[in-house]
Write a structure and sequence with these properties.
Elements: H1 3-14, E1 45-52, E2 55-62, E3 70-74, E4 86-88, E5 109-111, H2 116-121, E6 126-129, H3 151-164, E7 171-175, H4 179-189, E8 194-200, H5 213-223, H6 236-244, E9 254-257, H7 270-273, H8 280-294, E10 297-299, H9 308-311, H10 313-333
Parallel strand pairs: 3-6, 3-7, 7-8, 8-9, 9-10
Antiparallel strand pairs: 1-2, 2-6, 4-5
Amino acid sequence: MTRASFRRCALRGAGIAAILVALAGCGGGSAPMAVAIASPAKADFAGLVPVGGGRQMYLQCSGSNRGLPTVVLISGKGNGAADWSEVLAPGDPAHGADYDALAWGEGQLVQSDAAVFPSVARFARVCAYDRPGVRLDGPDLSTPVAQPHAADQDAEDLHRLLAAAGEPGPYLLVPHSYGGVVAMLMAQKWPADVSGLVMVDAVSPLIRQVADTGQLSTWDALNRRSFPEAPEAVMLLDAFAETDALPPMRRLPAVVLSGDKPWLRPTASAQQQSAGGVTFAEWRAMQRLLAGALDAELDEKTNSGHNIHAYSPLRVVDAIRHVAGTVAAVGESSGGGN
């Protein structure tokens, strides 16, 4: 099974309910902290990197810093590095659907120079990686771990992975879906190592303001399930507790991107809309809350389903360029640039 075909299976197997995760402690506070951005000349890299305990993880990096922070792409549940090098084929009928057709296995994903990873590599250093259990084949699989697993394990793994690979921070984190909780834990645990955020239809504990405990329990139970074609399984309510227990995240330059294509066809019944535990309307409300909490720009007219980076990669690339430029400008004005 190819990387691309597995990721499509993961989307169908995990279901739409599997797209929600966590964030905590965001909001106001002091102005963004100035950071010094390292710009070593580094070669492109793709392969396994030891992360300790006899484990290895797949990482690929390309491009050079050019005075900008290293961009780290963090995929959603069941997806890995390859997710950021593909787009929904131009002209595919799925683009014109009035619901998120791609999430239901419709539409064709193709590798493209217009995808997020190769596009960002043309102006900055960019890295993407595979968490354990997001890919089934190939000689460079990340070492498996027990599933379901805790979100703080993923944050620890990513921090070790970047350090072991010699990719210096601070990092501009670009999480999609479940990647949101990994990014937030990184920013809360190692604040000096994170300089900005581009949230790609990511989720947060703010969902608790719009969904009740019964909905959240249903959604958590679905995401704890592991499937042969999609082994990765996560403990989302635990993720909320992990983020809640840490100091609040410092203010960072940020953009929030929100998908605007409903998960189901608009003709779906109310029961179908809430079958996964959280409705699309609640999801959209949470995105607005997240943008407010982060004091971030909000783009909610993306003409995209949940996988904004596949539907509208330029939206994601432009947001990364904007935040990276803001981070660099803050560093230069404070004497922290190169």
